[in-house]
C-alpha cells in the first residue's frame, strides 16, 4: 500500500460527500467514500473504507461548530489508514473566467474563488467553509480545487454568448455550464467502452436532483443546457430550468421583491416539486397516481428530449446519448420516455436491457446508440489533483 492518502470533498447545500483515495504512481485509486447529511439528526458520518462500513455520530453542527465536523471527519476516516494525508481536493461549482482547469489553493486562488460567490451564492460558500476549516486544522497539507465550469471552457464564444450588450458579456455575464466534472468522467469512460462512438457526436444527460445536458464531439464540450447559473436548462427537482425573464418581472411586481426571496423561490420551490405540489423526487412521482405527479414527469421528459433536439443542431447530428447520475443511471422509465419522444431521430430502446440498467440499452436497429454509465466526479477530482502535484 502507498503511504499517500488523498481526500476529496464535494460540498452541497445540505450534504458533504467525501472520497478516499490512495496514490498509485500517477493515478488515484478509490478505497472509500463518506457522506454527511446535514438535514438529519443527530449529525452522522456514514463512510466506508474498502469493504468495511462505519457510522459515527458527530458532535459538531452545520453552523458555528462546523470546524469540529471537519475535524471529527478527518479523525474517523484517517484513523483507519496508516498513510499520510497527501492533499485535500475540492469540487468548486463556479470557476468564472479565471479558472479553466484545476489549481492549487494558495492565498491568491482562494481569494479568487471567494470573489465568485455572487455567481454561485448557494454552492460556492459551502466549499469555501470546508477549505477554511481544513486550513485551520491542517495548514501543512496542500489543497486543490477542481471546477464544474472548466470542462465547458472549450465551447465556442457564440455558444456561450447571451443576447445582451457586449460589455456585459465581456464582464463575465455569459453561459458557463455546470456538471463539468461528471461530463469529463463520462467522456473518458465512453472512450473505454466504445472509442469510435466517443470520437463522434454525443449528448450526455446528467439527471439528478440537479440536472443538465452536454453535447460533446470527440470528448470536447460543445454546448450545454445550463447557462449563467445552475438554474438554467431543463426542470430539476426544485429548480425551474428555463424561466422567461418577463415572468420573473411579473412576479417581482406582484410582491416577490427581495433578492433573497426570489433566490429561495427559484432554487427551492419550483421544478418538479412546484409542478406536482407533491415532491421533487422522481421516484416518488413515478409511484404517485395523481395527475399532477404524471404531469411533472411528462414535463421533465419533454424538456430533456427537446434539449437533445436543440443540441443536435449545435454539433450537427447525433451518434449516441449517455444517461448518468441518480435518475439517469437508475430509472428506466425516465430513459424510455425520453427515447420515445426521440423516435423521429431513429432512436429505438431495448426494453429488456433498459429495465436491467445495462450499459448499452439501444435496440440493434437504433440509428443512435444509448448508454447508461455511472458517473464519478470524485475520481476526476482525485486524478486532477495527482496531475497537479505529481
From TrEMBL:
Name of this protein: Acetate kinase
An MF annotation (GO) of this entry: magnesium ion binding
Organism: Rhizobium lusitanum
Top class in the EC scheme: transferase
PANTHER family found in the cross-reference section: ACETATE KINASE
Function according to Swiss-Prot or TrEMBL: Catalyzes the formation of acetyl phosphate from acetate and ATP. Can also catalyze the reverse reaction.
Source species, domain of life: Bacteria
Cofactors (names): Mg(2+); Mn(2+)
Keyword field: ATP-binding, Cytoplasm, Kinase, Magnesium, Metal-binding, Nucleotide-binding, Transferase
Family membership: Belongs to the acetokinase family.
Annotated catalysed reactions: acetate + ATP = acetyl phosphate + ADP
Principal location: cytoplasm
Cofactor note: Mg(2+). Can also accept Mn(2+).
Active site per database record: 148 (proton donor/acceptor)
Positions bound to Mg(2+): 10, 377
Subunit-level organization: Homodimer.
GO cellular component: cytosol
Amino acid at each position: 500500500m502507498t503511504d499517500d492518502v488523498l481526500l476529496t470533498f464535494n460540498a452541497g447545500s445540505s450534504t458533504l460527500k467525501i472520497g478516499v483515495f490512495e496514490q498509485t504512481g500517477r493515478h488515484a485509486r478509490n478505497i472509500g467514500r463518506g457522506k454527511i447529511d446535514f438535514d438529519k439528526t443527530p449529525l452522522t458520518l456514514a463512510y466506508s473504507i474498502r469493504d468495511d462500513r462505519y457510522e459515527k455520530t458527530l458532535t459538531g453542527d452545520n453552523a458555528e461548530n462546523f470546524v469540529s465536523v471537519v475535524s471529527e471527519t478527518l479523525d474517523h476516516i484517517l484513523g483507519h489508514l496508516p498513510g499520510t494525508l497527501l492533499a485535500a481536493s475540492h469540487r468548486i461549482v463556479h470557476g468564472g473566467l479565471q479558472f479553466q482547469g484545476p489549481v492549487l489553493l494558495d492565498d491568491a486562488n482562494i481569494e479568487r474563488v471567494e470573489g465568485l460567490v455572487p455567481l454561485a451564492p448557494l454552492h460556492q460558500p459551502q466549499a469555501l467553509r470546508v477549505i477554511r476549516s481544513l486550513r485551520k486544522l491542517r495548514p501543512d497539507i496542500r489543497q486543490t480545487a477542481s471546477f464544474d465550469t472548466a470542462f465547458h471552457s472549450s465551447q465556442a464564444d457564440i455558444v456561450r454568448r447571451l443576447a445582451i450588450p457586449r460589455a456585459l458579456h465581456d464582464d463575465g455575464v455569459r453561459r458557463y455550464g455546470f456538471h463539468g466534472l461528471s461530463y469529463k468522467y463520462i467522456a473518458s469512460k465512453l472512450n473505454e467502452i466504445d472509442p469510435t462512438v466517443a470520437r463522434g457526436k454525443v449528448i450526455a444527460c446528467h439527471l439528478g436532483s440537479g440536472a443538465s445536458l452536454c453535447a460533446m464531439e470527440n470528448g470536447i464540450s460543445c454546448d450545454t443546457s445550463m447557462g449563467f447559473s445552475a438554474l438554467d436548462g431543463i426542470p430539476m427537482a426544485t429548480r425551474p430550468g428555463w424561466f422567461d425573464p418577463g415572468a420573473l418581472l411579473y412576479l417581482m411586481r406582484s410582491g416577490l421583491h427581495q433578492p433573497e426571496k426570489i433566490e429561495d423561490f427559484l432554487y427551492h420551490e419550483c421544478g418538479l416539486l412546484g409542478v406536482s405540489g407533491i415532491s421533487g423526487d422522481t421516484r416518488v412521482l413515478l409511484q404517485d397516481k395523481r395527475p399532477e405527479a404524471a404531469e411533472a414527469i411528462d414535463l421533465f421528459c419533454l424538456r430533456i428530449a427537446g434539449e437533445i433536439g436543440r443540441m443536435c443542431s449545435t454539433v450537427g447530428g447525433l451518434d449516441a446519448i449517455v444517461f448518468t447520475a441518480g435518475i439517469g443511471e437508475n430509472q428506466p422509465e425516465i430513459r424510455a420516455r425520453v427515447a420515445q419522444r426521440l423516435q423521429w431521430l431513429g432512436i429505438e430502446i431495448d426494453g429488456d436491457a433498459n429495465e436491467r440498467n445495462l450499459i448499452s440499452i439501444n435496440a440493434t436497429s437504433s440509428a443512435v446508440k444509448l448508454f447508461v454509465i455511472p458517473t464519478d466526479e470524485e475520481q476526476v477530482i482525485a486524478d486532477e489533483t495527482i496531475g497537479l502535484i505529481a
